[in-house]
Design brief:
Elements: H1 3-7, H2 10-22, E1 29-38, E2 48-62, E3 67-83, H3 85-91, E4 98-101, E5 104-118, E6 122-137, E7 140-144, E8 147-150, E9 156-172, E10 175-184, E11 194-204
Antiparallel strand pairs: 1-2, 1-11, 2-3, 3-5, 4-7, 5-6, 6-9, 7-8, 9-10, 10-11
Length: about 200
């Protein structure tokens, strides 16, 4: 990941910290839980297609029901990607063949600093956080009329940034549905860069 993409989202991090420090002592505090799912994806990966991504966690929110709020989110997510069989066959110059294996999974846990604005029914938010990514890939065995080939892949793990933005619609006073765009991956440039859209629900408890 280029340095610019690492440091640009940090503006949100500093904004969130400043708002947390400046928040009045009587600001409303809420605890929320959330679950979400989506297709996900890894646009920079030539031989992988999106399959699904799921995420869940908790949010500590500070702020009034209407207006600016800040918060901290803990999140656990799991993403799975399947092999792009056409791309793998094309890389070998084969018009036909079979691909076994070649899938990849990424699990992540982390903390995000959040900042948002709520109008009551509608709201928007953004976040920047640091996650621990654990990436697992399976070897792809490609059988073509010209022979059998096997990819050599390695599993990797590293800390890295996660950032994104979302919108939410409050359906009842204590629950909302949301859609968010996310991007993240390990600082190790050889790791998968996840990116996509998740839809979910959150609720106060």
């Amino acid at each position: 990941m280029r340095a610019s993409s690492r440091h640009l989202p940090a503006v949100l991090l500093f904004l969130s910290l400043a708002l947390l420090v400046a928040a009045p002592a009587r600001a409303q505090y809420q605890r929320l839980g959330f679950v979400s799912a989506g297709v996900g994806g890894a646009p920079q990966e030539a031989y992988l297609d999106a399959q699904f991504t799921i995420a869940a966690g908790f949010i500590a929110r500070f702020g009034p029901p209407v207006g600016v709020s800040v918060g901290v989110r803990s999140i656990t997510a799991y993403s799975r990607l399947r092999p792009d069989e056409s791309a793998l066959l094309d890389s070998l110059g084969a018009a036909s063949g079979e691909v076994e294996g070649g899938s990849a999974t990424v699990s992540e846990v982390g903390l995000d600093l959040m900042a948002g604005y709520d109008t009551g029914a509608l709201g928007g938010y953004g976040w920047y956080g640091i996650h621990y990514y654990n990436e697992s890939r399976s070897d792809a065995v490609i059988t073509t009329p010209g022979g059998t080939f096997q990819s050599d892949v390695r599993n990797r793990a590293d800390l890295g940034p996660s950032y994104g933005a979302g919108v939410q619609w409050r359906i009842v006073p204590r629950a909302a549905v949301f859609a968010e765009w996310f991007r993240g991956g390990g600082f190790d440039d050889r790791m998968i860069r996840l990116e996509g859209l998740r839809l979910g629900v959150n609720g106060v408890f």
